[in-house]
Design a protein that fits this description.
It is a single chain. This protein is α/β, with parallel strands linked by helices. The protein has two domains: 183 residues, 3-Layer(aba) Sandwich (Rossmann fold); 117 residues, Phosphofructokinase domain (Rossmann fold). Helix content is 42%, strand content 18%. The chain has a seven-stranded mixed sheet with strand order 3-2-1-4-5-10-11, sandwiched between helices. β7, α7 and β8 form a beta-alpha-beta unit. α1 runs parallel beside α9 and α6 runs parallel beside α11. It starts with a strand and ends with a helix. The structure holds 6-O-phosphono-beta-D-fructofuranose (F6P). 6-O-phosphono-beta-D-fructofuranose binds next to loops.
């Protein structure tokens, strides 16, 4: 089937670099003489037909901007067949031939079901700070989010050292510890608590005490929000109970990690994936996610990207073990 018009949306939690990906999709589509519609508010806007025609100037000066100019949403209605049927009708009414979604696994699940039900060509680009998508080494926004977290942790380190304090710093990552592990290594943290691994609070305390014996003056423990045996506040309370002499503090970094100007890496990644996505559709590929593996463009069936698990790198786990003595 030949493609002359595509539509593009951003969906789920926004991530720095989504605008750069949108720009790349729009500009490559125009380069190949396609028309492009932007869909406001993700799958919600798709169901409601909240579309806007985009040209190469509509995406000027956004490569450096955080957030997403076409906005994002998590759609309940799209989970139902009725919702998806309305979305399909909107695409037919607007004469759209293919759909590109920039988002995470929720977005990809929706796209894959949609393709199966209506045989409508879809393609996904991985945009989430969590980096929890199978089929790509990195997702758009992960690099920026972990740099933002690292910079914040560096600042906390200054005050922690001045006061000999033990800080528990919670970083994002709904079910995955990619941000936590990366910024724990990059900021020289004493320990990292991850959803993928298990450390009892008593073990954590022993590890911290070992540092105190070595005249360590401050300690930073990074806690991934998905950690199974407690969030940062709960762990801080447990440690305080076990060792009341510790001056413990808690910082939850929160949504600061989702904003800000994307890093050079994220801008480049978003640009490459956007171009590759449009070219893949034109080459007849569909129901796939375009990612990056070993620095090369890689295609993964959406079904596989959703079902399989992106594992933390064992070598990084080894590195933090060795360097946090
Ligand atoms: O998936 C990205 C993410 O930022 C997660 O790390 C976090 O758990 C979640 O989104 C927060 O979602 P919301 O912005 O809807 O609170």
């Amino acid at each position: 089937m030949s493609i002359s018009k595509i539509a593009v949306f951003t969906s789920g939690g926004d991530s720095p670099g989504m605008n750069a990906a949108l720009r790349a999709v729009v500009r490559s589509a125009i380069y190949y003489n396609l028309e492009v519609l932007g869909i406001y508010r993700g799958l919600e806007g798709l169901i409601e037909g909240d579309f806007v025609a985009l040209d190469e100037r509509s995406v000027a000066r956004i490569i450096n901007r955080g957030g997403t100019i076409i906005k994002s949403a998590r759609s309940e209605e799209f989970r139902s067949y009725e919702g998806r049927k309305k979305a399909y009708q909107q695409l037919i009414d607007h004469k759209v031939d293919a759909l590109i979604g920039i988002g995470g696994d929720g977005t990809f699940t929706g796209l894959h079901i949609f393709q199966e039900e209506f045989s409508f060509p879809v393609l996904g680009l991985p945009g989430t700070i969590d980096n929890d998508i199978f089929g790509t080494d990195y997702t758009i926004g992960f690099d920026t989010a972990s740099n933002t977290a690292m910079e914040a942790i560096d600042k906390i380190r200054d005050t922690a050292t001045s006061h000999n304090r033990l800080f528990f710093i919670e970083v994002m990552g709904r079910d995955a510890g990619f941000i936590a592990l990366r910024c724990a290594i990059a900021s020289g943290a004493k320990a990292v608590m991850l959803p993928e691994t298990h450390m009892e609070p008593s073990e954590l305390l022993n590890h911290i005490k070992k540092g105190a014996k070595q005249r360590k003056t401050s300690n930073i423990v990074i806690v991934s929000e998905g950690n199974k045996n407690g969030n940062a506040s709960e762990l801080a309370a447990l440690i305080k109970e076990l060792e009341p002499s510790y001056d413990t503090k808690v910082t939850v970094l929160g949504h600061i990690q989702r904003g800000g100007s994307p890093s050079a890496y994220d801008r480049l990644l978003a640009s490459r994936l956007g171009v590759a996505g449009v070219e893949a559709l034109l080459a007849g590929k569909q129901d796939i996610m375009v990612g990056i593996k070993n620095e090369k463009i890689a295609f993964t069936p959406l079904n596989k990207a959703i079902k399989e698990h992106h594992h933390l790198c064992d070598e990084l786990l080894h590195v933090i073990d060795i360097l946090s003595i």
